[in-house]
Amino acid sequence: MNDKKIIENNLYNWCIKLFPICRSITGLGTKKTLSFFEKINPKLTRIKFKSGQKVFDWVVPYEWNINNAYIQHSSKKKFCEFKNNNLHVVNYSEPVNSNITKENLLKKIYTYKKNKKAIPYVTSYYKKDWGFCMSENTKKKLPNGKYKVVIDSSFKKGTLDISHALIKGMQKKEIFFSSYVCHPSMANNELSGPVVLNGLLKYIENNYPKTNFSYRFALVPETIGSIAYLSRFFRTMKKNTLFGFNLSCLGDSKAYSIIRNLNQNCLSFKILNTVLRYKKNLKIYDFSERGSDERQYCSPNVNLPICGFSRSKFGEYPEYHTSLDNLNLISNKSLKESLQVLALIVDFVELSMFPKLQTFCEPNLSKRNMYPTLSSYNTKSADLKLRKDLLAYCDGNRSIFEVIDILTKNKKIDLYKIYDELKFLIQKKLIK
Amino acid sequence: MNDKKIIENNLYNWCIKLFPICRSITGLGTKKTLSFFEKINPKLTRIKFKSGQKVFDWVVPYEWNINNAYIQHSSKKKFCEFKNNNLHVVNYSEPVNSNITKENLLKKIYTYKKNKKAIPYVTSYYKKDWGFCMSENTKKKLPNGKYKVVIDSSFKKGTLDISHALIKGMQKKEIFFSSYVCHPSMANNELSGPVVLNGLLKYIENNYPKTNFSYRFALVPETIGSIAYLSRFFRTMKKNTLFGFNLSCLGDSKAYSIIRNLNQNCLSFKILNTVLRYKKNLKIYDFSERGSDERQYCSPNVNLPICGFSRSKFGEYPEYHTSLDNLNLISNKSLKESLQVLALIVDFVELSMFPKLQTFCEPNLSKRNMYPTLSSYNTKSADLKLRKDLLAYCDGNRSIFEVIDILTKNKKIDLYKIYDELKFLIQKKLIK
Amino acid sequence: MNDKKIIENNLYNWCIKLFPICRSITGLGTKKTLSFFEKINPKLTRIKFKSGQKVFDWVVPYEWNINNAYIQHSSKKKFCEFKNNNLHVVNYSEPVNSNITKENLLKKIYTYKKNKKAIPYVTSYYKKDWGFCMSENTKKKLPNGKYKVVIDSSFKKGTLDISHALIKGMQKKEIFFSSYVCHPSMANNELSGPVVLNGLLKYIENNYPKTNFSYRFALVPETIGSIAYLSRFFRTMKKNTLFGFNLSCLGDSKAYSIIRNLNQNCLSFKILNTVLRYKKNLKIYDFSERGSDERQYCSPNVNLPICGFSRSKFGEYPEYHTSLDNLNLISNKSLKESLQVLALIVDFVELSMFPKLQTFCEPNLSKRNMYPTLSSYNTKSADLKLRKDLLAYCDGNRSIFEVIDILTKNKKIDLYKIYDELKFLIQKKLIK
């Protein structure tokens, strides 16, 4: 691209800092995480929903916090120490402090059979319960005898917190990005989504002092958070959302994935498919494979034009929802690649979402020195072809992404090259 | 299915009773057949069109009746005795009683070359003529000599009779079923269609004291009957018909067939295709393969959303339109299977034609004890998936059959299981 | 076809007469060519655009004329004599008369590397320049020494000329045919297009004293001519054009080609595809392969329902834009075949563009003696099937070409047979 854009390079560092925090759908860990992002992007503001508040068919739960947890054998040996790994405790466990037989303890322990070294990630948000998670290997070696179980957690009337930002553009039409901040110490699912979202917010703030379109960003606890968010902003979002993406699992390098919604003509899918077309290992999933907040954004009575964007999709990589989804699974390179996909979409949207030729019939390129003056058999370079095709396809009705689709149907063209040529034609006032 | 529905079991017995009757487009045989069905389904009422009455481009013909017919050789040996098989006489033959040379007789005899044992079915409704049908084998053995031909038939000013029923539901929108009652002693084509139609009418009467949709049933002589019926009810049917089927050849077991009309998006086709998708040997025919009353219901200026439903389609099985299309060709099992296809369609239509989720965003299943409370890696059973998918796809715009199409696009799901789950979700007030 | 239509047989002779003329986008050669066609078709009238006149983004250039041109070696030997072949001079060359070194001469000479015997066709309309074209073989043999170059050409304020005709039918809806008259001595590209266009105009004049639809014909210099034409007639054409074709390269026998526009449902494409379906070597090109005046007619803000019709498409045959594109490349047989394709389209359009059945339900064919009166197993001839299908598919909404598409989807039917049967049904007042 000719114009040098500033792109965030600290994505992985943010992950390092955020990884140890024990997040959940409510509580201090989540609030701390949101504060961290609010410092990076001061545009983000906090929204709070009180425990007990009704949000559509749901009720905001009590705020959950946890200080410590462990299992202690009568020999004093400790297992499942929360301080070593917050996945050891079933998320949203009620407090417990009691002695227990090994037999009864085993009923409260969850392991992951497919990988005996991994601690699984388990939650119990909507029924009071408690439990511990450990590797199958450790479980097998638990000594016989008496145990003590301690979970120093608490429930209180508090708040469910969301951070969001709305960059108001010249147009009310919005582009929406959402990710979730309720997962404890796992990296790809889900620090990568919030981190890329914040990288994109910074990208727009740094490179577009005044945007043409509006951009909405939401960092929510999954499910209950997106439901709460919709309960407040649904009307506006329904009226204004042009397209948008739910961001999840954007830190690994094995694939690019799109989770479609049921609307076969959805602009979100078309756009993402257009810019990802050349990626190796592009995977397109049906809405039947949904799993993240696209479940809410695309539910029948909400039906926003949102689709899911992932690298290896949640549920499709072996480390998913276990302690193996750690900082080794993701890289700054992959996070940045994911960010660049979204940044390129924003760049095209801001350049011209519905580009339109400004002349009747073809423009006279010769008089503008934009065409070889001597028509002969060797004037068919790829560059000239790209120029002529943009002038032939930009009719003001097709989105730039549809134009790119036509351009690249039968041959590969670098998308940055298309960006540069379109920008040039706009500067020449041939396209607007 | 959880709720036990009553399904008619006498379909084959009805065929046995009706088989010997000599039906035609008018006359006592057809009236007797209609009376038989009117006893089974008192909802059926008679409509009469007088001979000479104009119906669109056609005129109702004189009523034809026949007492007896045969060919007699000078040796007194008789051939083509009407009393043995009513197919022996060309249907609608004018009366004749005369001596004839063998040479001239042969010109009035029709056989079926493809199967030399079969008596073909031949008609001459719209030109006064007479003739006899016999097997090719018999024809070859006709002795030389003089013959007498006797056809004791008559034409009179009378009526063309139709039986029809309209079950008025809460909604005026109608679902239409039609079959025809003009064929003499043949079983699959066509006692199976009228018999399954009457089985369905009984099914609805027995199981739905008050229906949501309206249901229209017509038993007509083919072509002239459906034209006459349309001449009276076209306006209402055009306004109200949601979808419908022309029923023909529903008694054998070799295939399931759909005859499409030219409207590629026709609801009738979509519905039938959805419920027949898993049947072995499902055959889908173009409208160019039409042949029964879909010719009238789907003709250009009528254009009702009707398609044809058959097992082995007319013209596609070797016994078609011959004496071999007899009671051995059909079975109660097959007739009942055909009825069950239509009954299942009615069941879904009555349960919810356009099911709609009743919450914004996903409903909270946990609080209703409809979801495993402990979210972990093993909560993805097929049953739970079906529940979540129904809640995700029922938007009030898609018909239940479109929802089923999406559900079953990539995997086989028992349709009765879908019915039960949808019913459960309706009972739980999550879908309406 | 039953009705004998008069079809022009002099197409190749016209080419012979027109071949030697040196045409360009303006000038006497083009005017002479237009006069030639205006004599054949007096309906054609001249439109003139003055040099300097603005037409959309373009300006009509000065009128260019040329008397003579050559290169002369100091030995007096001449090369690139205009009188031998007008392709020797770069079209629109400014006048020159000067001595020149061989080194500098070579910079002004164009050859065609792919075929060393061919003189290429080169133009320089929009930048003042001059040059010569010769075969690579001749160029290699140019003797050393001094040269004189003479181009006796001139620019003057004059006109850009177009011939057009509008046959006014009962309906304002127009069918449009365009071809171009700016190419010097080349045969397929482009005498074949104008010649076939004039053959078609004569065909309509000879066979249809009063047409139902209106027909517009334009003979223009390529690009600037079609732009000028649109600058005058765009509003009318936008309102009235039903479909149309840009005609180019219609004289060879190796293929039939369609150049699509970007509208996937364009009637022009559908019609041409319908009538060419059975042709061997039918090639369908994307709009990205455009190159002739479809570039203007289908440009974003013009967007007329036009597509390109060629035999071997421009750029796709080795002789293209060289002296090898001569009278040997084309034949009267091929020109006439191309004309017949267009004539058949006109015939169907004039017979019934949107044929509609005139009865409710099927018509009674028996009473009109249009159907075998004895319904039996042998009444399914292909002819009867065609009759019944036309009656079943002509609903007044489908164009006759869509009807043909349905008829011929699965089986080959002679299009003239369909024409005859449709005409018969119209005569019988069953279709209108």
Q: What does it look like?
A:
The structure is a homotrimer of 432-residue chains. The first copy, chain A, has 432 residues and is an alpha/beta fold. Chain A has 12 helices and 16 strands. In chain A, 32% of the residues lie in helices and 20% in strands. The first copy, chain A, has an 8-stranded mixed beta sheet, sandwiched between helices. The longest helix of chain A has 21 residues, at 332-352. The mean pLDDT of chain A is 96. Chain A binds chain C through residues 356-357, 359-364, 366-367, 373-377, 389, 391-396, 406, 409-410, and chain C through 56-59, 90, 110, 112, 120, 122-127, 129, 131, 223, 226-227, 230-231, 234, 262, 286-288, 290, 295-296, 298-303, 321.
**Cα-based radius of gyration of chain A, to the nearest Å:** 25 Å
Structural category of chain A: alpha/beta
- Sheet with most strands: strand arrangement of chain A: 1-10-12-11-13-16-14-15
How many DSSP E strands of chain A? 16
Report the largest inter-chain contact. Answer: B-C, 37 and 25 residues
- Describe the main β-sheet of chain A briefly: 8 strands, mixed
Helical percent range of chain A?
Answer: 25-40%
What is the molecular shape of chain A? elongated
Quaternary structure state of the chains depicted: homotrimer
Name the helix and strand elements of chain A from N-terminus to C-terminus, one letter apiece.
HHEEEEEEHEEHEEEHEHEEHEHEHHHH
Strand content of chain A: 15-25%
Q: Report mean pLDDT of chain A, rounded to a whole number.
A: 96
Number of helices of chain A: 12
Distance between the termini of chain A: 19 Å
- In terms of per-residue confidence, which ranges of chain A show pLDDT below 50 for 5 or more consecutive residues? none
